[in-house]
Design a protein that fits this description.
This protein is 39% helix and 17% strand. It is an alpha/beta fold. A hairpin with a 2-residue loop joins strand 3 and strand 4. The radius of gyration is 18 Å and the shape is globular.
């Protein structure tokens, strides 16, 4: 199963992704976790030791040069458009339990986007991961689906958009759905997060009514404490962890 998770920054997307990944690991599934959001740190949320030392793929300059034939940071020129990537999930990922984690990193973009070795390598890697790998894949995306293309979108089993009660979060969810529709990704579910009570629940049910809800997660102080203590939210005794386990079961039996 290939799952992509997206949403506006700050809605709890990475926390949800980490809980989903750790839940799958806890029930014996092999998971390839992809941190595709340069502003997030999925490794820390998973509880991987020395998470801050994990080097993003886009910053592995020697490897990018070796695989593409061009220096990172260069734009235009000649380089391989189909670089070898099939060995990377096993050779450069961080290991934790039955989880392999890869940080894609960011690519500096000019006004018209970036046609560069790093971008080409990352796109080839994501395509390989989605189309070829046979383990569970969970991708923590940016507030969009920039790493997915028309060739990979149809192989994604579910796009999960995390939303919180708020207009900007809903606007982002609508934008993500529009982008997904443009590349043929139609299996979309929403997770409502940071629900403080019936009013928040009613707000999301009214303004995101045309989405399929996978479930709702409460505003959880236990997760705030886990973050302050620098531990994975999976290690916290929280109702959110229990609810994500229920969602995971629903995904597996759908």
């Amino acid at each position: 199963m290939k799952i992509a998770v997206s949403g506006k920054g700050g809605v709890g997307k990475t926390t949800f992704s980490a809980l989903l990944i750790r839940t799958l690991d806890d029930i014996g599934k092999k998971v390839l976790a992809i941190d595709a959001d340069p502003d997030a740190n999925l490794a820390a949320a998973l509880g991987i030791p020395d998470a801050g030392l994990i080097v993003p793929i886009s910053e592995m300059k020697e490897m990018v040069y070796e695989r593409t034939g061009a220096q990172p940071g260069s734009i235009g020129g000649f380089y391989k458009l189909n670089p070898k990537v099939d060995d990377l999930p096993d050779s450069v990922s961080a290991k934790f339990n039955q989880i392999k984690l890869m940080r894609l990193g960011g690519v500096k973009k000019g006004g018209a986007g970036c046609i560069c070795p790093e971008s080409t390598l990352l796109k080839a890697l994501v395509m390989h991961i989605v189309l070829v790998r046979d383990e569970f894949v969970v991708m923590d995306m940016e507030a969009g689906i920039e790493h997915l293309g028309r060739g990979t979108a149809r192989a994604v089993d579910r796009l999960i958009v995390v939303v919180e009660p708020g207009r900007r979060s809903i606007d982002t969810a609508d934008h993500i759905r529009e982008l997904a529709g443009q590349i043929g990704l139609t299996q979309i579910s929403v997770v409502g997060n940071k629900i403080r009570g019936d009013r928040d629940l009613a707000f999301l049910q009214k303004h995101v009514a045309d989405f399929e809800f996978l479930g709702f997660l409460p505003y959880d102080n236990a997760l705030i404490e886990a973050d302050l203590e620098g531990i994975s939210p999976f290690e916290a005794p929280s109702v959110t962890k229990t609810e994500v386990a229920r969602m995971t079961d629903a995904l597996l039996t759908a």
